[in-house]
Design the sequence.
C-alpha cells in the first residue's frame, strides 16, 4: 500500500485536532468547569500560589480552544496560544517525576501536549475545517504536504 502525503496529511491533521479538541473539552469544560466549578478551579490555582483568576482563564481557554480545534477554526493561533498553559502545567508537574499517575502527577503528559500542539500548529487545520476569515480577512487553508 502506498500512502501519498498529499492525501493523508490533511486527514492526519484532522484526526489530531479533533482528538485534542475533545480532550481539551474533557479537561476544561467537564473537569474544571462542570466538576470542580470555576470557584473550585480558582481555589486550586490559588493553593498552588498562582492568582486564582488564572484558574478561570485556563478553564475557559481550554474549553474555547477545544471547540475551535474540533471545528477547525483558527487552528494555528489556537494551538500556539495554548503553549503557555501547557508549559505552565509541565513546570507545575516537573517535580513529581515521570508518570502522570504518580502523586502530584508527572511531567510527560503536559510535555506531550506541548509537542502535539506544536505539530498541529505546523500542520494547520487539515481536512473538514470551518472556513472563517482570519485577521486578514482570508479564509483558512487546509494543510498540504
Sequence:
Amino acid at each position: 500500500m502506498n500512502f501519498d502525503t498529499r492525501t493523508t496529511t490533511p486527514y492526519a491533521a484532522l484526526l489530531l485536532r479533533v482528538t485534542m479538541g475533545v480532550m481539551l473539552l474533557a479537561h476544561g469544560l467537564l473537569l474544571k468547569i462542570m466538576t470542580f466549578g470555576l470557584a473550585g478551579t480558582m481555589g486550586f490555582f490559588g493553593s498552588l500560589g498562582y492568582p486564582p483568576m488564572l484558574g478561570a482563564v485556563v478553564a475557559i481557554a481550554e474549553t474555547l480552544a477545544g471547540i475551535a480545534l474540533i471545528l477547525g477554526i483558527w487552528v494555528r493561533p489556537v494551538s500556539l496560544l495554548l503553549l503557555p498553559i501547557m508549559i505552565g502545567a509541565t513546570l507545575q508537574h516537573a517535580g513529581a517525576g515521570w508518570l502522570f499517575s504518580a502523586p502530584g502527577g508527572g511531567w510527560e503528559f503536559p510535555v506531550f501536549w506541548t509537542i502535539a500542539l506544536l505539530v498541529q500548529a505546523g500542520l494547520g487545520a487539515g481536512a473538514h475545517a470551518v472556513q472563517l476569515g482570519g485577521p486578514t480577512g482570508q479564509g483558512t487553508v487546509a494543510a498540504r504536504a
